[in-house]
Amino acid sequence: MMIIVKSSISGNEIPMATMRIETMLGDTAIAVHPDYVRYMQPSDWPEGPTHHRRPNVTDYSQRNSGQRLWHRDWCISRQLWWGHRIPAYRVSFRNGHPKNQKADSHTMWVSGRCYQEALEKAAAQLNVNEEHLELTQDDDVLDTWFSSALFPFAVHGWPSQTDDLDRFYPSTLLETGHDIIFFWVARMVMMGQKLTGRLPFKEVYLHSMVRDAHGRKMSKSLGNVIDPVDVIQGASLEDLHARLEGNLLDPAEKERSRRGQAADYPRGIPECGTDALRFTLCTYKAQGEDVNLDVNTVQTYRFFCNKIWNAALFTLNALPDNFEPSPMSEMLADCSIMDRWILSRLSDTTAKINDGFQGYDFPIVTSAIHKFWVQNLCDVYLESIKLSLRADDHRARVSRNVLHTCVDAGLRLISPFMPYLSEEIFQRLPRRPEQEEPSICVAPYPNTEEFPMFDGSLEERVALSLDIVNRIRSIQKEFGIPKLSGHIVCNNDDLGGVLSQLCPTMATLSRCRMLQMTNQEPDRCLATTVASNCALFVEMEDIDVPRVLQRLQAKLAKMNTGLKKIEAQRSMDSYEEKVPQNIREKHDQQMEVLQADSARLGAAVAMLKMAR
To answer: Contact 47/107 with Cβ under 8 angstroms?
Structure first.
């Protein structure tokens, strides 16, 4: 794209070239040396070191393929208040000097590293004594790139030794992009050491470059620019098309942009909110790797926000009006296996999250938070206690306290990523007497000292019971059985005792008709090994073996055909060079899903053949 600076007096133009989008927005005028013959137009280019000394150079024009011309005032948004003040001084004579009238008709500027140096230079050039001159330094500052080095300490009042400077400088962490390591970061380090004697920060976190879902750099000409406001508030496809009319694309580029928008957002961009967008960006790999932002992924985490809201609403409805949370020490002694399990999961999640924050590994943090809320709390614990919460006995009161503890801690864990959602729920949640914080923003962040209840042995036993639940669900789905009857045989007394207590929970989570422990292998049952000392037996009377076997074999054959097709594509010559990366990644994902589904169906077919 070519930038043209045009004189408003004669129409003469100076072509410029620029690369960065922020300089395109800021470079709307140009300073011309008065002795440069090529652009020497005395009436066009007034002298002066800064924009307010060039009042006539205010018309801005930009041409794209010679088809469009427009004007606008000069943007000074990149002039920063903490920047280097321009070392240029306007020279004038003091009142009473014989040359004062002449000085008023001609403005003279000099530069200097300080006022005195500039004064001496002006006096020498005008051949007068210094006391006859008065210098006024330019009020403007040099632009971002030059002045960024001062930012870490200038914002705190430097060069004065202010309280803010003592308290906040040096800082701990700088978050920035890898493309300005030299322009900003290196200069900050050098200037900080030179002017303050200290490094401005200890660590630098490099964020990723955000690309579209296909890995392409966002470009208006492609129509793939994602406006964060559209993701937050939502936008229809018609709105996206309408905005193309306000930019400077030629008709061919506009049409290409419309096609790109229609392909990527056929139903527009759904409203996702700020919390979902922030959480999504933190789930991607960081430290310099590109982020292929897919709006569908953001929408998935909007549904995650809905799940948190619904879990909190369930919790609030489950708590009585006069509910006051009990101290942790009082409720631990009476906790059930599932109560102790969810508290152990909370403790382990808290440890993983704090470790992730320490290492700036935000994908680990967001993954741990998501797993706790969805897989642990909502999918397992809430479902396991729904029936017991209907009672008003001691068992129900303990579970309500445990549920309240998990929701309260879960909100505090997720608050850095979802401040709006977590604050809204936090204000409605009953508090313990010792909790006096007015906002979740100032509430203590959970740690393992607050939640030391991790129990690895218990988690292994519950994990085995959840494996049994998943196997029952899989058999019911694959075999088309609404509710099956099952038996568990376990050769380990300790494990058998735990599974016996968990049988009602497993039956609830799997939605089977009946599940019980037994000492001997039952007859006429379909067997599946869960562990070396544990097996699950499903009663065959619930299964139409010939019909189910025929259906599964047909489905398995179709999956194997799909696998062979993808394998043939991946085995082509120059596959890595000719096939785009996003297509290769899609093939890998399809291959992984088909292989897992094929293995699962193959195991189901083998089980039926053995039982037939």
So the answer is: yes
pTM of the model as a whole: 0.72
DSSP classification of residue 441: G
What is the Cα–Cα distance from 354 to 363, expressed in whole angstroms?
Answer: 12
CA dihedral 409, 414, 420, 424 (to 10 degrees): -20
pLDDT in tens, 442-488: 999 999 999 999 999 999 999 999 999 998 998 888 778 888 889 99
Separation CA 511–CA 233 (nearest Å): 39
pLDDT digits (tens, 9 = 90+) for 391-447: 888 899 999 999 999 999 999 999 999 999 999 999 999 988 888 899 999 999 999
- Amino acid letter, 70: W
Q: Please, which residues bridge with residue 526 across strands? A: 538
Q: What is the Cα–Cα distance from 54 to 337, expressed in whole angstroms?
A: 78
Sign of CA dihedral 575, 578, 582, 586: negative
Two structure tokens written together for 144: 């971002």
At residue 228's C-alpha, the angle toward residues 225 and 233, to 5°, is: 120
Secondary structure class of 292 (helix, strand, coil): strand
By the 10 Å C-beta count (0-12 exposed, 13-18 middle, 19+ buried), 572 is classed as exposed
| Residue 606: both structure tokens together | 């083998």
